[in-house]
């Protein structure tokens, strides 16, 4: 007599696949077409956590943020029809930032498909652009296999995998077998290494250059020490993309910071004068603006061949892991003579940092965003986690937030969707329960997702939520200010977000003056240490930060000339660089030609 084989509902078998891959949290909102999986989540609640968010967009963004913060796959779900559609915003964020995410999507029972059944429609086409793997499950027996395959594809492509599940399949009993393909010896794929000949040719280009500049992205990974050694050895200043913030230490004197609009003055100025740009593991969405301002020789080092020439035509491309390239360049190079260009760049950045410090320490006048970042830095733990929303808070975080390699932070970088901060903070706290977690959002972005303060309360997530509330879409306001138009659609009806928070069970604190700021942040820390979430509604001015992207560098008779863009002057008033700086409380700032003249830099 043969022993009867043990069976399990197909949805439970699917969840066991997730568990085998190390998934701890699944974000979603139930719907009738997803009930078989909801049943499985209940049966498996001791092994995997269902996190009930209040909007599918928040669930998808939380899954994306989890993947960015941990490197591990994030999982979210939505039901057929509206739930599926609501996932798209977060899934596109994951795709653009190369985050591995699995989206489980409900579908009506297979017996009702193609009958125009309630909430039934063809979901595959909707996800065809966002997903690197996109399948509808065809049999109950294949459900765990398809999900396992989807996870592998999401990791392999660092992107979004979508599995559409007809609801009735999840209830079907299938053999209880180990469907997951994960193994204990899973390891990263071998990385390409630069050849000696490539590095020799690279070093020759550096020797010929008068003003070489690194532009470094998140591909630097853990190799910042090698980069800093090479930067000093070859006298090449460093600019970074936003996602490299914190990977290259801010206190490295030759780290000039980020480019374009969310940028430092020194980075934009020095880059605009470069005659050799060395892009290292950098994916830069604003390259078509910044890289086209003037001609230069362009070298790109990247571990992914598909990236070559994506942002600028190549003079030289080196297919290599960043660490392998940097180490070989260090081994094969000889120290360069002290460079006036390098010294000028370092001094320019030093002056910029002094300017930022002065703004943060301003002790009179109205409450402004700089003092808020001063307080965030003051109360932050050395290993704090930040969920940062888009808009002016990205600019200000890059300029003022003290980000180090021991801290973790995440933004919606390339997709730049509003409403990222709350879900990112939720994911951060669930992934790192013993760390201090902040959500930093503007009032426009926060009001899109503020219902999910309820999620923070439901799961006892002691998050410090900071709303920089100026009753305007500040980032768009600045854009409209620089073109010939009246302000349109950017003013927001103000609200008492502290009271909104209190109505949801969050401790709410309104901050209106500088005198209230320090006690408010002290109270926020106290509240979160007691295990409760808190929200600081900081009523700031509409003040704009210095738009460094308007600075332009040209050459005349061998000397650098700096001007304010004609477009900016046309929409404001004619002004010198010094007048431009003064209009943003920067009278002590010096233009780049000042440093070039000081250190003897010529064309």
Automatic annotation (TrEMBL):
CDD domains: TPP_POX, TPP_PYR_POX. Gene3D superfamilies: 3.40.50.970, TPP-binding domain. GO terms for molecular function: magnesium ion binding; pyruvate oxidase activity; thiamine pyrophosphate binding. SUPFAM superfamilies: DHS-like NAD/FAD-binding domain, Thiamin diphosphate-binding fold (THDP-binding). Residues 200-328 form the Thiamine pyrophosphate enzyme central domain. Keywords: Pyruvate, Thiamine pyrophosphate. Residues 389-538 form the Thiamine pyrophosphate enzyme TPP-binding domain. InterPro entries: DHS-like_NAD/FAD-binding_dom, POXB-like, Pyruvate_oxidase, THDP-binding, Thiamin_PyroP_enz_cen_dom, Thiamin_PyroP_enz_TPP-bd_dom, TPP-bd_CS, TPP_enzyme_TPP-bd. PROSITE patterns: TPP_ENZYMES (PS00187). Residues 13-123 form the Thiamine pyrophosphate enzyme N-terminal TPP-binding domain. It comes from the Bacteria. Belongs to the TPP enzyme family. This is Pyruvate oxidase. It comes from Aeriscardovia aeriphila.
């Amino acid at each position: 007599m043969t022993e009867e084989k043990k069976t399990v509902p197909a949805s439970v078998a699917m969840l066991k696949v997730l568990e085998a891959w190390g998934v701890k949290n699944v974000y979603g909102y139930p719907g009738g077409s997803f009930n078989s999986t909801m049943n499985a989540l209940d049966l498996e609640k001791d092994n995997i956590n269902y996190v009930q968010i209040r909007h599918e967009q928040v669930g998808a963004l939380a899954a994306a943020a989890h993947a960015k913060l941990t490197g591990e796959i994030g999982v979210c779900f939505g039901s057929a029809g509206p739930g599926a559609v609501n996932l798209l915003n977060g899934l596109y964020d994951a795709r653009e930032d190369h985050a591995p995410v699995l989206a489980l999507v409900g579908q009506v029972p297979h017996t009702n498909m193609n009958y125009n059944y309630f909430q039934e429609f063809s979901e595959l086409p909707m996800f065809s652009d966002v997903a690197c793997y996109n399948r509808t499950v065809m049999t109950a027996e294949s459900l765990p296999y398809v999900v396992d395959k989807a996870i592998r594809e999401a990791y392999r492509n660092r992107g979004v995998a979508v599995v559409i599940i007809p609801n009735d399949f999840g209830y079907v009993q299938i053999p209880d077998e180990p469907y997951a393909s994960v193994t204990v010896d899973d390891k990263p794929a071998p990385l390409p290494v630069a050849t000696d000949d490539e590095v020799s040719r690279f070093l020759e280009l550096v020797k010929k250059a008068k003003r070489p500049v690194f532009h470094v992205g998140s591909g630097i990974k853990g190799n910042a020490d090698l980069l800093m050694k090479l930067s000093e050895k070859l006298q090449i200043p460093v600019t970074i993309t936003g996602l490299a913030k914190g990977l290259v230490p801010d206190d490295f004197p030759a780290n000039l910071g980020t480019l374009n609009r969310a940028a430092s003055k020194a980075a934009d100025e020095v880059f605009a004068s470069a005659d050799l740009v060395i892009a290292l593991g950098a994916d830069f969405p604003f390259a078509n603006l910044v890289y086209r301002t003037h001609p230069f020789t362009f070298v790109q080092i990247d571990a992914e061949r598909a990236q070559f020439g994506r942002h600028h035509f190549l003079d030289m491309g080196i297919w290599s892991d960043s660490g392998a390239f940097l180490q070989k360049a260090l081994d094969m190079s000889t120290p360069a003579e002290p460079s006036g260009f390098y010294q000028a760049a370092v001094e320019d950045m030093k002056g910029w940092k002094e300017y930022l410090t002065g703004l943060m320490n301003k002790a009179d006048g109205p409450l402004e965003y700089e003092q808020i970042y001063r307080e965030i830095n003051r109360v932050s733990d050395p290993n704090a986690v930040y969920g940062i929303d888009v808009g002016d808070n990205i600019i200000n975080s890059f300029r003022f937030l003290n980000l180090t390699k021991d801290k973790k932070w995440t933004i919606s970088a390339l997709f730049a969707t509003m409403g990222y901060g709350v879900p990112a903070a939720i994911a951060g706290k669930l992934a790192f329960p013993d760390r201090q977690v902040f959500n930093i959002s503007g009032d426009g972005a926060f009001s899109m997702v503020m219902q999910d303060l309820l999620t923070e309360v439901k799961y006892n997530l002691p998050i410090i939520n900071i709303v920089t509330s100026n009753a305007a879409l500040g980032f768009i306001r600045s854009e409209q200010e620089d073109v010939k138009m009246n302000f349109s659609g950017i003013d927001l009806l103000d609200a008492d977000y502290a009271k909104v928070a209190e109505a949801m069970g969050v401790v709410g604190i309104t901050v209106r003056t500088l005198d209230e700021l320090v006690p408010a942040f002290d109270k926020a820390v106290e509240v979160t240490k007691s295990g409760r979430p808190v929200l600081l509604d900081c009523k700031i001015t509409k003040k704009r930060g210095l738009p460094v992207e308007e600075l332009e560098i040209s050459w005349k008779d061998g000397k650098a000339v700096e001007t304010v863009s004609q477009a900016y002057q046309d929409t404001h008033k004619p002004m010198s660089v010094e007048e431009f700086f003064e209009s943003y409380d920067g009278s002590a700032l010096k233009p780049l030609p000042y440093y070039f003249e000081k250190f003897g830099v010529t064309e």
